[in-house]
Design a protein that fits this description.
Helix content: 25-40%
Shape: globular
Structural class: alpha+beta
Strand order of the largest sheet: 15-12-14-13-17-18-16
Bound molecules: flavin-adenine dinucleotide
Radius of gyration: 23 Å
Number of helices: 15
Distance between the termini: 24 Å
Number of strands: 18
Strand content: 15-25%
Largest sheet: 7 strands, antiparallel
């Protein structure tokens, strides 16, 4: 970047907030060093600065890559030399938590965990919850339409955003911060930016819908004979617990045993069964969710849906169960290569899908390091496949095994992590030609120079 360009950026955000060189090199790059390949990062302090930055960069024809907490999993934040990274870490103010309107208004650089804590002070809850909560930002959650553990009860990020402020690629500030639950006046434009992965503009502020924080939470781990029992167990739990069932996650036995071991947690149930599920019920002060959950499990046992179950008797036991579910990262280090997938299918097709994937994987490796777990209630599983071979050929073969059955079974190759760069070649597995063509038209209207997170999602 030329010296006059750098000077212009410094004039907008202050010299200390244009990072290059040593200071820049010390930054945490997240999952890949490619995130920081641009070599230049600016840290605006408010919306006016984001607007002035984008106006300058757009006129100068300089590509822009938005950064949040760098926890995204599909290479959506990677940059290249010549790009300018716009990082919102200084825009970390919570403007208000309003217990009457039940909304949180905040800048987009606030982390999800900070927003959760601020809401809890008012006995309210941000329903989005993901394991990366400590680093992921609200802007990143919006840009990726994050899902997580409570989607079955509250929906995706898209369902919790009541307002957004977005700076368009040319610097125009689009304010959609009404915060109204109901506003059927024309197109709901904010939805266009939710899940757009930084390709249409930079999210600078959000209005999030809050829910009453549950006064009581009950969590259980159940063991089933096989995956076949998971869908009927979900139905059973939904019928018995109704709206109180807030999470239903599954873990295959290998994942369960491995993450317990790698997290130094004694497995609450022996890792000898065919499938495991985490059930969490939440309710108000007057709800005896512990008793409700235990009764649900007792009838599930009677009906042969589960073989064993334990309920958490303390917050520490609850956290132990959730750590076993969430702590997937150490698995990546067990083999020279490990590839992760995030697939979506109708729940009724999962058993068939898993059988095909397992048998095909076994045909290329007699003992595949295969794990599957996750948000099964939303028809979403995460798969991890470890391999002794870390070459591109093995990567391609495994990818084909994971993705090919999705076409016939009506699934998606990206349930909640997005497309980024990594899954660009899979967009046509998940979306029709007509949808992709319209996405391109929308992109060309908002970003005619193609500078905003260039190459991501649509290529
Ligand atoms: C341990 C772990 C668990 C996870 N669990 C889940 C899960 O359960 N469910 C789920 O859906 N996801 C999950 N994720 C992935 C999830 O997408 C991200 O964690 C999170 O939503 C991204 O937020 P971020 O601030 O880190 O964004 P980044 O990683 O910084 O960016 C992600 C994308 O958003 C864009 N972006 C970031 N900020 C903005 C902004 N302000 N305006 C416009 N574009 C922006 C970036 O350009 C990039 O394309 C998980 C990730 C990890 C590491």
């Amino acid at each position: 970047m030329s010296a006059p360009d750098v000077a212009a950026l410094e004039a907008i955000v202050g010299a200390g907030n244009v990072l290059q060189g040593d200071l820049y090199g010390l930054r945490n790059p997240g999952y890949t060093r490619e995130n920081l390949a641009a070599g230049l990062l600016v840290r605006p302090g408010n919306t006016a600065e984001v607007s002035a930055l984008l106006r300058y960069l757009y006129r100068a024809g300089i590509p822009i890559v938005p950064h949040g907490g760098l926890t995204g999993l599909v290479l959506g934040a990677v940059s290249k030399p010549g790009d300018v990274i716009v990082n919102l870490e200084r825009m970390n103010r919570i403007e208000r938590v309003d217990p009457v309107d039940r909304v949180l208004v905040a800048e987009a650089g606030v982390t999800l965990e900070t927003a959760q804590r601020a809401s809890e002070e008012h006995h309210l809850m941000v329903p989005v919850d993901i394991a990366a909560r400590g680093s992921a930002t609200l802007g990143g959650n919006v840009a990726t339409n994050a899902g997580g553990q409570r989607v079955m009860r509250y929906g995706m990020t898209r369902d919790m955003i009541l307002g957004l402020e977005v700076v368009l690629p040319d610097g125009e500030v689009l304010c959609m911060m009404s915060g109204l639950v109901k506003n059927n006046a024309g197109y709901d434009l904010k939805q266009l930016f939710i899940g757009s992965e930084g390709t249409l503009g930079i999210v600078t502020r959000v209005v999030m819908r809050l829910h009453e924080a549950p006064a009581r939470v009950a969590t259980a781990l159940a063991a089933c004979q096989s995956f076949e029992q998971i869908p009927p167990l979900l139905r059973h739990a939904s019928q018995h617990l109704g709206g109180k069932l807030t999470s239903f996650e599954m873990l295959d036995p290998k994942y369960y045993a491995t993450t317990a071991r790698l997290s130094f947690i004694a497995a609450p149930i022996a890792p000898a069964h065919g499938s495991y599920a985490i059930l969490e019920a939440s309710g108000a002060e007057s709800d005896d969710v512990d008793a409700d959950l235990e009764a649900t499990l007792a009838t599930a046992l009677d009906e042969g849906l589960i073989l064993d179950a334990v309920t958490a008797k303390s917050e520490a036991e609850r956290q132990a169960i959730w750590t076993i579910r969430e702590n997937s990262e150490p698995i990546e280090r067990l083999t020279p290569a490990c590839w992760s997938y995030d697939i979506s299918l109708p729940l009724s097709r999962f058993a068939e899908y898993l059988a095909v994937v397992q048998s095909t994987l076994a045909s290329i490796d007699p003992e595949p390091d295969f794990y599957y777990f996750g948000h099964v209630a939303d028809g979403n599983l995460h798969l991890m496949v470890g391999s002794q071979a870390s070459d591109e050929d093995m990567h391609r073969r495994i990818e084909e095994i994971v993705y090919t059955p999705l076409k016939t079974l009506g699934g998606s190759a990206s349930a909640e992590h997005g497309i980024g760069l990594e899954r660009r070649h899979l967009l046509n597995v998940c979306r029709s030609e007509g949808e992709i063509a319209l996405m391109r038209r929308v992109k060309s209207i908002l970003d005619p120079k193609g500078l905003m997170n260039a190459g991501k999602v649509l290529g």
